[in-house]
Amino acid sequence: MVDIFLDTADLSEIRRFSKMGVIDGVTTNPSLIKKVAGVSNARQMEKYIWSIFNSVPGGDVSVEVVSTDRHGMIAEGRKIDELFRDYSDNLLIKIPGTEEGLYATRELSADRLRVNATLIFSPGQALLMAKAGAYCVSTFSGRVNDRIREQMGWGKINDPANAELGKRYHKTSWFPADGWREEGRTDGRVVYIDVPDEGVRIRSGVDLTGQTSAALLNTKTLTLAASLRNAREAVESAIEGAEILTVPPNVLDDMLGLTAHSQVVSGVEAFERDTVPEYRQMFDLTANK
After folding, report:
1. Which one is catalytic: 19, 34, 35, 94?
2. Residue 94 catalytic?
3. With helix as H, strand as E and coil as C, how does the chain read?
4. Domain residues of the chain, as ranges?
5. What kind of fold does domain 3-258 have according to CATH?
6. pLDDT of 22-74, one tens digit each?
7. Tens digit of pLDDT for each residue in 156-211?
């Protein structure tokens, strides 16, 4: 079963989706928390994170370190565990997938703390974090797609200088999982990110997730597909082997739209038409037995 995490710090959104039973946890960061909570001191920040845990009962919550050196990350990871000890079974500590992050992951994992290794952009990087003991690795699908678009000469999607590009393509638009074929070519060549040190070519964010999942097949580390910007990429990431998806509320709302498919609607209407009175009477709580 694939787990779905909500990538937000908005308590109303977390509670809404939690009540539906469609989320298994939350990923967030300090900037998102400050944006929605308006916290002004450390104690308020701490209480707000408690509220996130309480809004998704039994669900995992990722809490991020801010240091970039190993000693700082280790100290902050242990402090996070201390602050949220009551939720230790559901706590994930976000550590960047850097060389310093490897040392920190090793130490925190030895403390039996679960690490979410973030900012993963290659299968080899993910494999190293897994070897260091990461509980899961977060592949940044959307940012990979942005990088490939730039290699295609499209520049940055949100750059005002690319106004015409913005009219035909938005960063949340679907990106083909098997790669974007260059216009005007007939040989089927796709644009990719070359990782020569690993001997791999990454054709899309979903492809990164698939290759990472394959690389971690014989490890205990889970692949978490992150930076997902539309429902189709989320579903494709699950098909490619991601055990966890983290999506913002708007993407999960798009996924909910699938429940309003025309065939679903017409099927429900058919059920209603075909229901015989005797069957419906079983649900009449006012009827005499």
Report:
1. 94
2. yes
3. CCEEEEECCCHHHHHHHHHHCCCCEEECCHHHHHHHHCCCCHHHHHHHHHHHHHHCCCCEEEEECCCCCHHHHHHHHHHHHHHCHHHHHHEEEEEECCHHHHHHHHHHHHCCCCEEEEEECCHHHHHHHHHCCCCEEEEEHHHHHHHHHHHCCCCCCCCHHHHHHHHHCCCCCCCCCCCEECCCCCCCCEECEEECCCCEEECCHHHHHHHHHHHCCCCCCEEEEECCCCHHHHHHHHHCCCCEEEECHHHHHHHHHHHHCHHHHHHHHHHHHHCCHHHHHCCCCCCCC
4. 3-258
5. TIM Barrel (3.20.20)
6. 999 999 988 788 888 877 888 988 999 999 999 999 999 999 999 999 999 99
7. 555 555 555 554 556 666 666 776 665 544 444 555 566 555 566 888 899 999 99
